[in-house]
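Mods, move this if it's the wrong board.
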Amino acid sequence: MPLHQSSVAAPATAPGSNPVRAITLDGRGVTLSGLLSEPASPPRALLVALHGGGMRAGYFDGRADPATSLLTLASSCGYAALALDRPGYGRSAAQLPTGMGLSEQADVVRAALDDYRANHPCGAGILLVGHSLGGVVALHASSRWTGDGLLGLDVSGIGDQWAPDAEQLVGQGSRLSHRMHWGPLALYPPGTFRLADALITPIPEQESREILDWPRLYPQVARDVRAPVRFTFAEHELWWRSDPETVRAMLERLGSPLSCSERLADAGHNISLGRTARTYHLRVLAFLEQCLSLPGAGETRAAKHH
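Not the wrong board. Structure tokens:
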């Protein structure tokens, strides 16, 4: 069975319960595919995960070690967990042969979530989890979020300043470095790279053209983000600067009431497929719990606190 169609349950749940299943949603006429894992009882909240460039939704359901699956972990803790193939990936790839811009993707994702919420319980609201370019889409979506329902954003694998040589590598349009994406191979469970073949796919043309624009766009997007935000940087992150001064300045640009960052030891850029994935995912859920406990959780806020 292909990796992205896995139906293996999380180790913490009873055999056969909380399976990960395929789902399709309508996003303004664009059919998005994805993976869904639901708890046995009504969910406390909905976690929506957006993969990075050149990946698929199954990034959040790592099969090399079932303990690395964010989807099954979240549902075992009482949350519904939905990982979407972003526009231009999965089911929508044929419909969008050149892909779609990252800002436009955010609008399609929002529409797909409206479709989901019309037919599924979502509990107290939504936590957006974005990895790499999926984090860019999550930030765009949050910056234009109207009404309530957004609890927060948890973003990894993205910053606002390129690391040395990273911008030059992207700008050359060359095949992106395997080392840059993964870091030391020992950081990943055995079988990761064989199983990852089912996840890896070319970055769509429109999306690829926008990668270099992000450091310029970040300040204007960040100032309109009103939900709590947590950034995670892997110890072996090679694409983005993550020194304290750069990260502090990045957080200061957010309009969020609460923003924080964390550095994850023994992790490479593709955090959710590595040996420390469960550690990271538990911290995602801890942040979700923190967001749920804030006064007016899910409402637009204007106050700012770091």
